[in-house]
Amino acid sequence: MDFIRKHQTFLIGNYAPPAIEIVRGKGSHLWDSQGKKYLDFTSGIAVTNLGHSHPEWIKQVQHQVELLAHCSNLYSIPEQVRLAERLARKIGPGKVLFCNSGAEANEALIKLSRLHGEQGEGKRTKILVARNGFHGRTLGALSATESSKYRKGFEPLLPGFVFCKLNELSDFENAIDDETVAILVESIQGEGGLHVSSDSFLQGIEKLCQKNNLLFLMDEVQAGIARTGEFLGYQKSGVQPDAIAMAKGLGGGFPIGAIWVKDSSSSLFTPGSHGTTFGGSPLACSAAHAVLDVIEKEDLIAQAKVLGDYLLQGIQKLAENFPKKILEIRGRGLMLGVQLADEPGELVSILRDNGLLAVGAAGQTLRLLPPLTITQDEIDQGLKILRQSLSAFEPKKIVP
Ligand SMILES: Cc1ncc(COP(=O)(O)O)c(C=O)c1O
Is 248 a catalytic residue? Predict the structure, then answer.
């Protein structure tokens, strides 16, 4: 096919897409250049939480394009101030800094920790992170990411990250020493295979941080923005982190990242100490306002819970029918992972041929991230395609 040959000729080969070109989206569906329609259970990897081309999102972004797209952080941007206020109302007393992506938001958290570590005697720089986590591809965020799959070829990385087992509080506790400054975890590991941080684990981490003057850092880049049935995934556990990274779903398809920092640490960044040209542009903020408006108007937090449970029940039935192919189901709300008996690649490709888009994750996991605006009928259609595709899927690894 001509387009894939051109893709390979002109684009650097860091992605290896299948031979389809996506050209249009509406609601829970995408269309390719040949006119084939797909049910989208990827949401652009947890980004298009309102579905594609939501009319309210289009209206607000279009209005802002005509008014003002960019003016830089040389000046105060009203849409940015209003968005920061809205985020603080949803999270807690604190302040917000805007950037452009999840990796950048985590870079800002790492830099915040450095500033926190400068306070008091000595210099603390060590950050404890969970095994299997994923925090982005920039060198700092990559240093916080354990998997050799992402690190290979890029070492030496930033020193000072210590990997501890998710949900094993004692592992984190034992790793704390005089140089430790922060703990960074995801409420649900997305790339890592949909492993959920338990309530008691997050509560324990909060206490450890308070006791040892560490920053409790939360990466909500994938699990955040209503996807798991809370505005941010950790909120289910009744804890309050010191700083939080957000991106992906915040812009609903327009790039925006943000960190929220609790009041007592929010003056660590001072004029000139950090910044980015595009962070929190009027246009990016207008996209995020549209996302928050629709989440509120259409009650998408409750939707994610109800429809997530419905999808989960459907997959549980499939697991009963295919016990040698589905080994475990993990996740929460509309962020679900199906652990398969083999790598997910073959099933992802069968699903795509059958008209359903899904994405793999670590640990032989098939990741399902439908838009939060999905209907029950569309979930039924997705489950039907999943059933049909599981029948054709032949895991190479034999499950006794
Ligand atoms: C939890 C988490 N943090 C950070 C990132 C990096 O975000 P971005 O790709 O926007 O840099 C991702 C991306 O998948 C993620 O899932």
Answer: yes
Catalytic residue of the set 236, 248, 262, 325 = 248
Reported as a single tens digit per residue, the pLDDT across 213-231 is 999 999 999 999 999 999 9
Overall CATH class of domain 55-297:
alpha beta
Q: Angle at which helices 300-321 and 376-392 pack, to 10 degrees? A: 30
| Helices (H), ranges, the chain | 2-10, 43-46, 55-67, 78-91, 102-118, 139-143, 148-151, 169-175, 199-212, 282-297, 300-321, 345-353, 376-392
Domain ranges of the chain: 2-54+299-392, 55-297
Cis before 282 (ω within 30): no
- Residue 224 CA to ligand 1 center (angstroms) comes to 11
Reported as a single tens digit per residue, the pLDDT across 83-114 is 999 999 999 999 999 999 999 999 999 999 99
CATH topology of domain 2-54+299-392: Aspartate Aminotransferase, domain 1 (3.90.1150)
The single residue of 219, 231, 269, 325 carrying the catalytic annotation is: 219
pLDDT at residue 329 in the model: 98
Residue type (1 letter), 385:
I
Ligand 1 touching residue 43 (CB < 6 A): no
Distance 398 CA to ligand 1 centre (A): 33
Residue 383: φ, ψ to 5°: -65, -35
**Amino acid identity of 46?**
A
Rg of the chain (C-alpha set): 21
Q: Which residues, including other chains, have CB under 8 Å from residue 143's CB and lie 6 or more apart?
A: 157, 158, 159, 160, 161
Q: Is 37 a catalytic residue?
A: no
- 103 C-beta closer than 6 A to ligand 1: yes
